[in-house]
Amino acid sequence: MSDLMQTPLSRWHRDRGARMVPFAGFEMPVQYEGVLAEHTTVRERVGLFDITHMGEVYVDGPGARDWISGLITNSLLKSEPGKVLYTTMCNEQGRCLDDMLIYHLADERWLVVMNASNHDKIVAWMRAHLPADGVAMDDASDRTGLIAVQGPASKDLVQRLDQLAGRAAGIDALDFYTHFLLDGPGGEWIVSRTGYTGEHGYELYLPNADMLPVWEELLGKGDDLGVAPIGLAARDTLRFEACYCLYGHELSEDWTPLEAGIGWAVKLKKKGGFVGRDALVALKESGLPRKLIGLEVQGGPIAREGAVVLAGDREVGFVTSGTFTPTLQKKLALALVETESATADLTVEVRGKRLDGVVVPLPFLDARVKGDPRAERSQSNN
């Protein structure tokens, strides 16, 4: 894996026996102790994730708000410094290029955080739409580290960081999807109340030089809280239980965010419009041909990504993600199916066998985070 990019913690992961795998061009830890144990740590205590592979692009200038707004489906109209917005970015056909977070750092300063697998595509898309003046882009991905602290004890642990001494009130004041800035040893830090697990949690954006000291400080000060490092495998089972979309599974350039069940992040009537709006308006007016549903798979093996979903003998969709959920102890799947078949008696074809798939409400696990919009499966648009 010598040709893969490293994070500031890659050596630490290897030295602690993590199983390392290629992921979005990076060498990343997929697990340490095991998926079940790591999943349980986050649900019951607190876990640390190295997610430095994510992409970060700073945007500055008096035209930044309007320019970003024209590229994303959600609305920045009510955004003010300290806010974080979840959104998608679409092509002209309304198909999803990526989902992302937009941080409003200061009056004319923003941060766009994208998935690692889409970094090059999104940076190129943004540059292709960059106006001649009024906006400047700075791709800081290769100099920015990112630690996620997730779980019921995450607040207690974050407050123990030396750099956050005296900032307990600021951390207490953080609502979901808000953040604050502070000066760290290596430069600016962003501390946000965000995460991808369905648990209370924080994400720390740090200069690369600060990553290892902060990671080891969190581990050293969280022993009594049961803190442990967590790999990508448990990150996936955690987000799956909360029904958070994963790009390449529930989101794709092959379908729209409306079909993926995140219509709440698509503001079709917002001032100025956005790339892909006309296509999405037409799709909504004609009726969505497909929708994302949840299935409880009865008997047999797990229904994995790509498994065919049938109504009778007719193929009506496919599984986007599926696993045995550690918290709920059930075999569940997310599936994109024809809208007219979303309440029908369905089966899933797995290893040549047809298994009953009972339609169940989403999310599978109620998000433990009050006000988390990604756990809402509404198709409504404003």
Explain the overall architecture.
The chain has a six-stranded mixed β-sheet with strand order 10-11-12-9-3-13. A six-stranded antiparallel beta barrel has the order 14-17-16-15-18-19. Strands 5-6-7-4-8 form a five-stranded antiparallel β-sheet, covered by helices on one side. The chain contains nine helices and 19 strands. The N and C termini lie far apart (46 Å). A hairpin with a 2-residue loop joins strand 1 (19-23) and strand 2. The chain has 382 residues and is an alpha+beta fold. It is globular. The protein has a domain at 263-375: Aminomethyltransferase beta-barrel domains (Elongation Factor Tu (Ef-tu), domain 3, Beta Barrel).
At a glance:
The protein is α+β, with helices and mostly antiparallel strands and 382 residues long.
Uncertain spans? 378-382
**C-alpha Rg (nearest Å):** 21 Å
End-to-end Cα distance, whole Å, is: 46 Å
Overall 3D form: globular
In the CATH hierarchy, the third-tier topology of the domain at 263-375 is known as Elongation Factor Tu (Ef-tu), domain 3
Average per-residue pLDDT, rounded, comes to 95
Please state the oligomeric state of the protein chains shown: single chain
Protein structure class:
alpha+beta
- Element pattern in H and E: HEEHEEHEEEHEEHHEEEHEHHEEEEEE
Helix content: 10-25%
- Profile the largest sheet: 6 strands, mixed
The DSSP helix count reads: 9
* Strands ordered across the widest β-sheet: 10-11-12-9-3-13
Q: What would CATH call the architecture of the domain at 263-375? A: Beta Barrel
**Number of DSSP E strands:** 19
